[in-house]
């Protein structure tokens, strides 16, 4: 991304969180202050209260799968989208690669059915050039997830299914977090959708933003697209250089090491830590 575009993203994020502003400044070669310093200034000015429609984020600790590269573990689920007809909903199907945090497939339908999800995963495998024997697909226990058509498709493709425990939503934490971003991001429409076509158009725009522009905390504030293209390691290295230079110019501002801009090599979902304790190295 060239400097002009990067500066535009910084400007557009001026009312955003320091967690978004700090890495964008670093990508422009600029160090102003640490993220904690930004928050201290906000607190001193009584501007640190949580804003928005959602409650402040909380982190859950699930237990089971590990991804060390792309197309190893996918998470997927279905969520409701309100329609203009009371009591009628459209259904958003979203599939995410947890290693890249990339949305790899989506669809909007007026019902929930295993036929829709089975077609979508088959299309995703083709588009992503997946080796199905390496892929695990995680979901909750809903009918479209465990329907005969879906399971038969996974068996035909050679994809290994994985399911959450019944009634335990944070076993599928990545999809839950993704849907929260969908519903509570500022660009979510204030009015219900008039048709599946209108909903799909909005979802397509959201996916473009999420993959290409959203700085994801779970992969150290790079975009899913930059991680997909293998650019994230260089982006993080440049940020580290910006901070090391800033420290060399003003060492009195640091009591220890600079911020960790390290590359995220492993993403865990429902997986035991190597210490033997259950947890999630990087949440969704």
Structure commentary:
This protein has 284 residues and is an alpha/beta fold. The chain folds into two domains: 3-49 and 228-253, no CATH class; 64-218, 2-Layer Sandwich (Nucleotidyltransferase, domain 5), CATH 3.30.420. It is built from ten helices and eight strands. It has helices spanning 3-12, 18-27, 35-44, 114-128, 143-146, 148-157, 173-184, 196-212, 224-228, 232-249; strands spanning 64-67, 73-82, 89-97, 102-109, 136-139, 160-163, 267-272, 278-279. It has a five-stranded mixed β-sheet with strand order 4-3-2-5-6, with helices on both faces. Strands 1-7-8 form a three-stranded antiparallel β-sheet, with no helix packed on it. Strand 2 and strand 3 form a beta hairpin. Helix 1 (3-12) runs antiparallel to helix 2 and helix 4 (114-128) runs parallel beside helix 6. The longest helix is centred in the C-terminal third of the chain and has 18 residues, at 232-249.
CATH superfamily of the largest domain: Ribonuclease H-like superfamily/Ribonuclease H
Q: So what's the overall shape?
A: globular
Instruction: Tell me the span between the first and last alpha carbons.
Output: 25 Å
Q: What is the level-2 CATH architecture name of the largest domain?
A: 2-Layer Sandwich
Q: How much helicity do the residues have?
A: 25-40%
Count the E strands: 8
Number of domains: 2
C-alpha Rg, in Å?
20 Å
* Biggest sheet, spatial arrangement of strands: 4-3-2-5-6
Number of helices: 10
Strand content: 15-25%
Order of helices and strands: HHHEEEEHEHHEHHHHEE
Pick out the low-confidence regions: 59-63, 273-284
Largest sheet: 5 strands, mixed
- The CATH class assignment of the largest domain is Alpha Beta
Global structural class: alpha/beta
């Amino acid at each position: 991304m060239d400097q002009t575009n990067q500066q535009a993203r910084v400007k557009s994020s001026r009312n955003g969180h320091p967690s978004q502003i700090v890495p964008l400044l670093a990508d422009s070669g600029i160090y102003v202050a640490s993220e904690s310093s930004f928050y201290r200034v906000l607190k001193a000015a009584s501007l640190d209260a949580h804003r928005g429609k959602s409650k402040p984020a909380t982190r859950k600790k699930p237990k089971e799968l590990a991804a060390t590269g792309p197309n190893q573990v996918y998470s997927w689920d279905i969520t409701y989208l309100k329609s203009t007809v009371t009591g009628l909903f459209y259904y958003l199907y979203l599939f995410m690669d947890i290693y890249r945090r990339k949305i790899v497939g989506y669809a909007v339908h007026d019902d929930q059915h295993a036929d829709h999800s089975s077609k979508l995963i088959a299309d995703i495998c083709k588009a992503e050039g997946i080796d199905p024997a390496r892929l695990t697909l995680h979901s909750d226990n809903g009918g479209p997830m465990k329907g005969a058509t879906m399971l038969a498709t996974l068996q035909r493709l050679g994809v290994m299914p994985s399911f959450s425990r019944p009634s335990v939503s944070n076993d599928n934490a990545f999809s839950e977090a993704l849907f929260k971003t969908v519903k509570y991001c500022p660009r979510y429409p204030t009015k219900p959708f008039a048709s599946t076509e209108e909903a799909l158009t909005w979802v397509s725009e959201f996916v473009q933003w999420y993959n290409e522009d959203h700085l994801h905390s779970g992969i150290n504030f790079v975009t899913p697209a930059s991680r997909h293209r293998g650019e994230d390691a260089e982006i993080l290295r440049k940020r580290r250089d910006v901070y090391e230079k800033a420290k060399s110019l003003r060492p009195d501002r640091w009591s220890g090491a600079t911020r960790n801009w390290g590359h995220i090599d492993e993403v865990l979902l429902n997986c035991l830590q190597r210490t033997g304790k259950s947890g999630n190295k990087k949440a969704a």
